[in-house]
Amino acid sequence: MSASRARGAASDPGHGGRRRAWVELLAGRVRRQQLGPEGEPKVGESAVRLLRRHLNLGDLVLEVDGPPRKQLCLSRLIDYDGPGAHTDLSSSLIGSALRDQAAQLGVPAAVLSSQVVASGLVQVCEADAGPPPKVLMTPDQRKKLSSLFEIAQNLLAQSMFSRLSFCQELWKVQNSLLLEAVWRLHVQNIVSLQELLESHADSQAVVAWLSRDLRLLCEQTEAPCQHADVARAMLSDFVQMLVLRAFQKNVDVRGTVEPEWMTQVAVAVLERMLASALEALAAGIQEGSAAHKAVSCWFSVFSGHMYRSIISTESPKRFFCHTLTQILTHKPVLKVSDAVQMQREWSFARTPPLLSGLYRRLFVILSPEELVDCLQEVLETREVNWQHVLSCVSTLVICLPDAQQLVNGWVSRLLAHAFESCDLDSMVLAFLVARQAALEGPAAFPSYAAWFQAAFGSARGFHSCSKKALVFLFKFLSDLVPFEAPRYLQVHVLHPPLVPSKYRALLTDYVALARTRLADLKVSIENMGLYEDLSSAGDVTEPHRQTSQDVEKAIMVFEHTGKIPAAVLEASIFRRSYYLSHFLPALLTPRVLPRVPDSRAVLIESLRRAEKIPPSLYATYRQACSTVREKPEDAASRREVEPSCAEEPLGLLTTALRELRASVTDPPQHDALSAQMAVISEQLRSALGLSEDDSDVEGAPVQLSVRAPELRPWEQRVVDLLLTSFCQNLMAASSVAPPDRQGPWAAHFVRTLCRRRLLPALLSRLCQLLRHQGPSLSASHVVGLAALAVHLGESRSALPEVHVGPPTPARGLPVPELFDILLPCRTQESSALCLKFCTAAISYSLCKFSSQSRDILYSCLSPGLIKKFQFIVFRWFSEARDPPSWEDPASSPWRPLCLPSADWRRAALCLWKQRTSRELLQREGLRLTYRDWLQLELEIQPEVDSLSDTERRDFHQWAIHQHFLPAPSATGGCDGDLEVACATLVDVLMDFCQSSRSYDRSENSDLVVGGCTGNRDIFSRLQEMAADLEQGPAPLGHAAPRGHFLFGVFCRRLQALARGWDVASRLQRQRELLMCKRILLGLPPSVLVGSPRLEQLAAPDCDDFFHLVNSELRNFSYDGALTHDITAHFFRGLLNACSRSRDPSLAADLTLTACQTQCPLLLTSALLWWPHLEPELHHRWRRCSQSPLPTELRRLQEAQHFAASVLSPLAAPPAPGPAWLCAAALHFVIRRAGKESIRQELGQLDSQGEEAIGSLKALDVCAEVLGCLQRKRISWLPLFQLTEADAGLGRTLLRLAPDHQVRLLPVAFYSLLSYFDKDALLQEDAFLHVAVNMYLKLVGLFVAGETGAVWTPAHGGELQAQAGAGPGLSPDGPGRPALGGLRPGQPLLAQRAAVGTLTAALPVFSPGRPRKPDNKCSSFSAAVDTSVPKKELLRRGRGNAQMLTLLSVFKSPSLFPVRVLNTFGKTSTRRPALGISPGPGCVFGGRGAARAQHTGFLAAAGRECGL
């Protein structure tokens, strides 16, 4: 004030009338006065008074460094240097000034200091005041505030600062305070936020002020500015303080307890902030607006990292529970009826992203159980906002991995409580929750139809406990009807609850009500589509649109299965109205029919053949197709318009995938992956046009054609987009972090790809890429597809099986094993692709699941791929064949694979040497075994192999003799046993050649090498090992030598095949035998004939080969002989074995003599091929012995000469023995000569040749032979009485004919009867016995498919022996010869010769041919009569081809035994005495004359036999 008066005085014109300047005033005092001893204190006191009088404390505390001339240089008063000293001096001066001022005013210095600092703080905050309102400070303000805070801290240190007074002063000017200034007070420990807030008396004002400034802070935090970090730190500190004060519970009662007032303020602020954010969301804020930014910023405070500084986790949990409760109860204006009608609009994809993101953040802190408990508590105790509740349920189902089980349990508890206490609220909540979860698709929760059927469709349902529960259920469902969506009503009608019959009226009433409601909504149950989605609450599709979708879906299912879809067949029966009025007209839309029938045309034809299309409708369709003409320009315009309709959904899908990539490469956004995948799933459904449920159609597995996978263009575009996105995302994520730190995005992505509607297209495209376009794939594609295969293996339990076409197995395959088929190793290119894929897949899985259990790792990988990796590494890298060093490489091979120029060979070797990979490769089931190696090596094609012939042979030698042969059997080796190695090779070779894989390249390729040239080398290895075994040492001691291992392999494989007479079984067995024979032919002939020891005079061991011929090869022989190759191979082996014996002739004779009884088929085969065998046999015998041919070989030669002489004009020489051998030779000679009639040759034979005549077999002129026998009084009936029990010639002859021909003996018998006079037949004593037995066998062959005699024991035991496979030679009573007995005086040889007449000639009978003496036919199968309805056979359970053949036999007048019936002249009226009556299984007992003939014949036969 004195200064101002001085300035006024200086300027006052006053007494002089003018103003005087300071210079003039001081001019007179230029001379300095000298001070005395008392002058200095006076001057000091004057100076102090002057300073006190002119001091401004507010300006003093705000002094900051500036220009030198404007600075208050207190340092000039005293000589003191240094910035620290300067600060201390200033603080001391300010403190002194404040104390003096307080003393003058009479107030405490602390209060005055607080007022001065508060005033300075307000001045700093108001320095940049102006619209818009702010909460952050400028740099200049922060600089001034920093100086002020230094002074305040010094004052605090001197106890000259009152925090309470300071807070009170601040609240007086609270509207001028900046929130950053308040925060900095807290940070600088001047006044904490808690102290500041507690100092205000009005809590509402505090809440309003803080909430307003926090909203402004959120807006400015998201705004682009250079101080965003400061804003985030401010927000974090404020939220932490509020959460701690609002939700921390201090269990120490002796400590300072937080005041209730502060808790209320903190809770109120947090609630007000959340409420304002929820209101902004409800108002529909636009993205990018200030409100949207503010809401986004506030929701970010719920991230878990925000509360890391809080030691206890209880406070955040309570805060999150409180927040969830507030969300669920925010403005509960919607009713339950509104929720029922509108809940489909609240699915996860339609929930605002900010709200769903808030839910996800809450789910991070709260466990799933805590979430459900919180939801249940809120729903039971408060009014709720149903939109928020149901959107929270959707988010829960989508984002939590175990949500399905969790929600299922919650719903089950709600239903149990509802039915127990008839609680309507629990019932409503259960249905709403189940429906909301079902809206998220079958990958997240079962469809509503499946849930409803599981809950109420069985006797174990919640409603089945009592009538009260049933009434409660139907009352609830009836109350819902006015608000229900049509889909839910359709579910309830089509899948109604299971109701006991006595309460059926309850269900009937409800169904009637639901149908009425559907009628009001113009939705018809009868006109529902075949594939309508009953699980979603969407609008009902228009009938015409749904019908077109049904047609497309039916065609698609037909393409994959090749069968008429079950839904179409069911609709044709149970929903005939929709089928006839909607489905068929849409399917039969007239069009220009393609030249090659497409899937639509084939489906129409299949329906027509199944009589599912009315003939008139089909005729109209064909007529319309023949007249319709499509305009080219119209077709072109439609083709142009079709894709454009879906361009927008595809663009949205592309955008969603691009956003996913941003989330993948940003680790902080990993928590948003589930939400982004839900958006992608929604866009994918839109892009594919899926208005129906994409769950499994008819529960059928995925059908895939490996050779020619097909995709629709639009499906291929979508799948390519998804696969490209997956590969790019993987490469981008791998550039940031290894797979184990990339989050769950890949697993979520693959689960989205595994939708049942999309999975067939995905697998077809993978088949195209890997199997057909593999060499053109880049490194990133291979790595991405390998990772995709790993995650498909992770989800294998949720995926259906895949049925693939040839050349793969017909069984269903898990999806991971499909990659084993898609990645063959046949060529160098395919092996390189397989190595890349396997290396990438194994490396990715080892890195991705490194911290998880090994079982999870093993389940994600296909064992076939792991074995192929070992196989290729062994083949390509010689260093891999050395024992492993068990040293881990410095780095994982995964990172180099992600580089553009990946060195796959180096990566594969690096992976091979890793300890973890070696442990993986040694695991049981994943280790490459000897059998696995053989299977893979057989597929190699040498002409395009990466190894040369020499390298391949060296590799084979190493693999067999160094790696697998010495390895123990427990690890897939052979325990050093070369015989085991050979047997395994033969087994694998046969499996490979019999499999369809071996025919994948050439239809005319040699079966010996299985159609795959790669196995020629493997067969060479077999020959080498077999030779090694032959040269091995003989067994020690006198132990009986074992049979050759090959026959053991053949026997085991043949026993495993099904035995039967159907065509499929016979063809399969014939194919197996053909392979066995060709393997034998490729090995040394000594395999067939074991070598005798030199010290023993014994025949070579041929038992195994004899058994193979008699049990298997005989049934596929032709005309009583084997093929030339196997016959010649046997005799080569025989002579080789005999050459090593001490007596070659004796060894040969012993062997061939054994052949007569043990394997006569070899001898007849030698006779057939004798012109080709004789020169080679003579040459080989001369090389091993100088003696003439062995006796038995000469016998074959003599039989051949005898047969040739019969056809010569000269007289035939006597027949050598045995007679049946001569007869066989004669038969073959006549067949080679092409004779159609041998009547003249038969007449030339003298009485010595009768034996040969009787044993002539397999002639095309059997009637002439039998006629000759009859004229010479040699009975031919014993031919039909042969059994295996017969000793001698009977068994020999049965071993010459195949079993299926022996079974047809009854057909042969009745085919020949018409050639003989009835009186001559009746003169035979054994005729009726044989005729009745053959007739019963004929009936049994047709009725039961077997030839066993249907016979009851006769008196006296005469026919008892005929009850088996054929009649036996049983003794008769006196005066009656046995059925197979001798005539008095007839030579034994002649009788035995007579027995062999027809045994091998059975194929020549043609039951359907005209009756001519010289009629010939080469096969029995020509007599099939297809005029008999097959339904009759199927009705009687006899539907195979042989039964049809026999039925044609019975229908032929020349074959049916009517002539035999007529032989007796009349039909007896007496009841049959045989004990057999025509039953329902006999076709002759069905109707009319046939039945009478059958009965009469049996009766007459019984009387004639004396029964």
Report on this structure.
By secondary structure, the protein is mainly α. The protein is 58% helix and 0% strand. Strands 1-2 form a two-stranded parallel sheet. α13 crosses α14 (290-299). The radius of gyration is 51 Å and the shape is elongated.
**Which shape, going by the Cα principal axes?**
elongated
Helix percentage: 55-70%
Residue ranges: pLDDT <50 for 5 or more in a row? 1-16, 64-87, 251-257, 535-539, 630-646, 691-698, 998-1013, 1246-1260, 1346-1507
Please provide the count of β strands. Answer: 2
Global mean pLDDT: 74
Query: Widest sheet: strand order?
Result: 1-2
How does the major sheet shape up? 2 strands, parallel
The quaternary state of the protein chains shown equals single chain
Radius of gyration: 51 Å
Q: Give me the number of helical elements.
A: 70
The end-to-end distance, rounded to whole angstroms, is 160 Å
Q: Percent of residues in beta strands?
A: under 5%
